[in-house]
Amino acid sequence: MTLNRRTFLAASAGAGVVLLGGGAWTMLRQSEPVSEPRVEDVLHDPDQPVLGNPEGDLTIAEFFDYQCPFCKRGHPDLMAEVEADGNIRLMMKDWPIFGGASVLAAQMVLGAVDPAGYAAAQAALMATSARLSEEDVRATLRAAGHDPEEMLKRYRQERQKWDGLMGRNAQQAAALGLQGTPAFIIGRTVHAGALDRDRLRAAIAAARSGT
User: Which CATH topology does 5-209 take?
Assistant: First the structure.
């Protein structure tokens, strides 16, 4: 799927937000029509922290959840490819669809504020192998040298900003008709589901070549 105005219009006509939890898919239909985001809104949200090279020639955006096993399984390959390439802007778009622990994790990591703290906190949570309780989230961050309560305090100080960002992410996911996490936008192409290193490299090469 190519990301453009027509994509959003077609997808948003009947899109819902999909939650994955308890081993079953649950579809929540939007009570109001999904507004049409611009490509610029998705790939260049000014509130979204950016990893990799902020001036890179290619943007990768991943809709992810800190409890999604496929997100976590593929994260080392994603980060390794971003580092090896050196010219990729990476946006990890929080879409916490697995429940309260996912929401708390997103809030705390966004509350890390500075880029180094954000990247390190995110890496710590993505390195876990299992589903997380809220206490697991706090313990993981604490073990990585962070102060969970300070992170939550900082998040609350800018709650409108961060809640607005996550709300926009959810609206964009619905407009694109995404069925869960992970989902990637590489250049202007949407890739639903996990990508191994070879498929990731191929998608990057195709985006750069315009194919």
Answer: Glutaredoxin (3.40.30)
